[in-house]
Amino acid sequence: MAIGALYLSCYSSSYAETRALLVGAWKFANPQIPDLKGPENDLAAMDTLMRSEGASDVTVLRNDQVSRTTVETALHALGLRAKPGDWIVFYYSGHGAEAHTAVKGTRDGDLDQFVPLPGFDQMHPDAERFIVDKDFYAWLSRYIPPSVKVLMIADTCHSGTMNRSVDPALFHFVPRLAFRGDADVFDLVARPAPQFPAVLPDTDAAAFPMATPDRPDLPNVIFVGAAQDDQVAWEHELPVTGAPSRGFLTYSFEQGLTARSVDGKTLVADANGDGKISVGELAIYLDSQVRGLSGERQKPRTSFVSGNENLALFAQFPARAPLAPQSPLPGVFSAQPGAQALLATGDHPWTVATSAAQADFLWDARTGKLVRQTGDTVAQGVTGPAQLRGALEKWRAIGALRPYMNETRAQLVIGPQTSGARYGPDALVNVALKHAQDLPASTYVTIFDLTSLGTVQLLYPVEAADGDGKLGPGGAMPVVNTQAVAPYGADHVVALVTAAPPMQFRALLQTLNNQPAAMQVVEPIRKVLADPAAQARLSIAEIYTGS
User: Fold this and answer.
1) Shortest CA distance to 443 belongs to which of 451, 433, 457?
2) pLDDT at 198
3) Who contacts 105 (Cβ-Cβ below 8 Å, separation ≥6)?
4) How many Å apart are CA 427 and CA 269, to the nearest integer?
5) 306-328: string of b/e by CB count within 10 Å (b at 16+)?
6) How far separated are the first and last CA of the chain, in Å rounded?
7) Which of 305, 108, 309, 133 is nearest to 220 (CA)?
8) Could you tell me which residues come within 8 angstroms of residue 209 by beta carbon, excluding any fewer than 6 positions away?
9) Residues sharing a CB contact under 8 Å with residue 430, sequence separation 6 or more, in sequence order
10) From the CA atom positions of the chain, what is the Rg in Å?
């Protein structure tokens, strides 16, 4: 795992400043450590974002400039320059890995996550060529005063698992896991102690201990990691193939702080529309976006001391022109010449890719399978342009709605299997709603499914017992039971949570029910989300089905 920190300005005080240390490594000159494409673009995007937020104190380290000494020196210098009320952003984009810890059985676990830096040699580790998570902790506790807030963002993975089989012909995601080969946990050489005097006065040093085996959380640090400890962090060309390669976490962070919400009055990560982005809002936004971009393969982790969830990261919007979330046309390729020629015929919601490597979707016209760049078979029974249109318009619809997801009040939960698992034919699938404790007493939910071929299916409320969809005491909603049936692939369940029954939208759903009309729900949902009286929130969950 790599730890990096990113950090944005707070304008609540005319004296407060934003200071940033942005670190990226993508060239390693080691056959066992594959080079990456995304960190170069991530670093440029973060540099632009920091400066657009008013940060003038920005240090950027790239590739050969990155070593233990240069990173520690830069952090120490930031701590010396920082004043009470400042924010520090410490950001890292690159590979991550795991090593055996020297002290076993502590709260910190038996493994250390570490960042392999350019020039790292796993056979002869040099302490200048790697940084362990405990080093970051020691430096932050020693060099950054507690009166200075730190937002750390690490766009790197810890370790890797995958819960679905994939088609290697179109699996374009690149893991930010450093090592090729059998071993994925290593033994590292001893590391030097912090080399600079503490910035904190001696009287405060006890409150910020050195890197002990059981590390207490630092109250001034908010940490965002790209993935859970058993997951890989991915990079890919975003938003579609042909675009610059990006880390999913960094891309989502940039989007949340630059794209406008549907009403155009706030940023998409500002869930309650109060003109500020809190730590809690950022955590929820990044979780929904990264899960959606990765096909449920990657779930970020945000850590902070209780009470910091309402801490505002921003007090004003960026001065630059707002960016609207885009839903560009996907590229499609077929290996069958006749089907490839058919793709170019007529008006269609896709572009024609010239190879599988340049495609967002691969269509096998012989088997009727549609494979997405994630490597998943996302639709079966795609026998011609009509089915292909329905499937691809569904993905365009999800792409258009995804940036507006707001799961602060309720989140769809698919069961009984773990998130992202594939349900076999006829398997039972449960759709439930995980709600916030402070959910308003008068809350209504509308749930529908967009099937693998883009067909709209109303799920709730549909029965007389469902009433008007009002949630019960404490936000209770009956579990919706359904079954994995053909056509198999990837379904998207959509929940719209509102303060009153959205009767006009529900009437539209009744009209579109069992029709391949996914794109026709996009603008009506945007309209509901933009209505202040609706107090609407949006959640989307993926269900993968098939053998």
Assistant:
1) 433
2) 86
3) none
4) 36
5) eebbebbbbeebbeeeebebebe
6) 33
7) 305
8) 141, 215, 216
9) 414, 415, 416, 479, 480, 481, 482
10) 24
19 by Cβ neighbours in 10 Å (0-12 / 13-18 / 19+) ranks as buried
Whether 275 contacts 266, CB under 8 Å: yes
Which structure tokens are listed for 206?
Answer: 């006890």
Tokens of 148: 């200075």
Query: From CA 268, how far away is CA 255, in angstroms rounded?
Result: 8
Q: Provide the 8-state DSSP code for 357.
A: G
The amino acid at residue 210 is M
Q: What is the pLDDT of residue 13?
A: 42
Whether the CB-CB separation of 412 and 431 falls below 8 Å is answered with yes
User: Would you list the DSSP string of 488-518?
Assistant: PBEEEEEEEEESS--HHHHHHHHHHBTSB-G
Cα 282 from chain centre: 11
Q: For the chain, which residues score pLDDT lower than 50?
A: 1-14, 159-164, 203-211, 213, 315-317, 319-321
For residue 116, give the nearest of 214, 39, 52, 53 by alpha carbon. 39
pLDDT at 11: 37
DSSP 349: S
How far apart CA 207 and CA 456 sit, in angstroms, is 56
Query: What are the distances in angstroms from CA 169 to CA 176, 234, 237, 330, 384?
Result: 20, 17, 16, 17, 21
Burial class (CB in 10 A: 0-12, 13-18, 19+), 175: buried
Structure tokens at 363: 């269509």
Q: Rounded to whole angstroms, how far apart are CA atoms 119 and 63?
A: 9
φ, ψ for residue 301 (rounded to 5)? -130, 125
The CA-based dihedral angle spanning residues 136, 142, 144, 145, taken in that order and rounded to the nearest 10 degrees: 150
pLDDT at res. 406: 93
- Measured over the CA atoms of residue 151, residue 156, residue 162 and residue 167, the dihedral's sign is positive
3-class DSSP state for residue 458?
A: strand
* Residue 418 DSSP class: P
Measured CA to CA, the distance from residue 431 to residue 413 in angstroms comes to: 6
Those residues whose C-beta lies under 8 Å from the C-beta of residue 270, and which sit 6 or more positions away, are: 261, 276, 277, 281
Scanning 92-247, the segments in alpha helix (DSSP H) are 133-143
Contact (CB, 8 A) for 545 and 484: yes
* C-beta atoms surrounding 161 within 10 Å: 9
What is the pLDDT at residue 430?
93
- CA–CA gap between residue 273 and residue 271 (Å, rounded): 6
